[in-house]
TrEMBL record:
<feature type="domain" description="Ketoreductase">
    <location>
        <begin position="7"/>
        <end position="186"/>
    </location>
</feature>
<protein>
    <submittedName>
        <fullName>NAD(P)-dependent dehydrogenase, short-chain alcohol dehydrogenase family</fullName>
    </submittedName>
</protein>
<keyword id="KW-0560">Oxidoreductase</keyword>
<dbReference type="InterPro" id="IPR057326">
    <property type="entry name" value="KR_dom"/>
</dbReference>
<dbReference type="GO" id="GO:0016491">
    <property type="term" value="F:oxidoreductase activity"/>
</dbReference>
<dbReference type="Pfam" id="PF13561">
    <property type="entry name" value="adh_short_C2"/>
</dbReference>
<dbReference type="InterPro" id="IPR002347">
    <property type="entry name" value="SDR_fam"/>
</dbReference>
<dbReference type="InterPro" id="IPR036291">
    <property type="entry name" value="NAD(P)-bd_dom_sf"/>
</dbReference>
């Protein structure tokens, strides 16, 4: 495959977890991948041994980030085929402990940044009849006491997926969501949880996952990759849980 035939994929939150696995999955499939994240060290680890992955350090909430990411893809590769809105932050807070600044940080990263990025990428994606993938959460379809702002932001992104799928269909752009359940990622450590707290969360998750195991980032990356495959060209507006049956269990 020559460079002109390779698809170009932008993955946000690509430094760890689902984003890293997704970037590597597309690279293994022969795509050029622009791996976006805040920290250069983890991005370098994502790209190590994968010559088709290019790291780009950027904060997706920055005002210039949408244009910068799209321009980077177009300047380097001349096209953009897939935008994967994976970057996200979580937070624990009951309503009685509401912190507006913390809520705004979550919604800015988890909801507004994907809107801005999708808007900036529209022209490029229309030219390739591309795909937008929003990585949300299966818990957004159920109650999640204590993390309601996180769940609500992700549920809103699922709603945008459905609306955008209809709105952008005349341009040939498909829009899908992948909604992970309990996945083995560093999100708990990023929240500052102790090993004991992490173990308790894992026990709770396992008890509510019918398949009886914690998912791997590669499980989610596989689903994203399949939905972006040209063979899935008649699939749009779907919200696909990858959660071991947690939503239906």
């Amino acid at each position: 495959m020559n460079d002109a035939q390779r698809r170009v994929v932008v993955v946000t939150g690509a430094g760890t977890g689902i984003g890293r696995a997704t970037a590597r999955a597309f690279s293994a499939d022969g795509a050029h991948v622009l791996a976006v994240g805040r920290r250069t060290g983890p991005l370098a680890e994502t790209a190590a041994g994968h010559p088709l992955i290019t790291p780009l350090a950027a904060d997706v909430t920055a005002a210039d980030a949408p244009g910068r990411l799209v321009d980077a893809a177009l300047d380097r590769y001349g096209r953009l085929d897939v935008l994967i809105n994976n970057a996200g932050i979580a937070g624990d807070a009951a309503l009685a402990e509401f912190d507006e600044a913390a809520a705004r940080r979550q919604l800015d990263t988890n909801l507004l940044a994907p809107i801005r990025l999708a808007h900036a990428a529209l022209t490029a994606l229309a030219e390739t009849r591309g795909v937008i993938v929003n990585v949300t959460t299966s818990i957004g379809q159920r109650a999640w006491p204590g993390s309601a702002v996180y769940a609500a932001g992700k549920a809103a992104l699922d709603s945008l997926t459905r609306s955008w799928a209809v709105e952008l269909a005349p341009q040939g752009i498909r829009v899908v969501s992948v909604a992970p359940g309990a996945i083995d990622t560093p999100i708990g450590e990023h929240l500052g949880r102790s090993p004991e707290q992490l173990a308790a969360v894992r026990r709770w998750q396992l008890a509510r996952t019918p398949l009886g195991r914690i998912g791997r980032p590669e499980d989610v990356a596989w689903a994203i990759r399949q939905l972006c495959d040209p063979a899935a060209g008649f699939v749009t507006g779907v919200v696909l849980p990858v959660d071991g049956g947690a939503v239906v269990g």
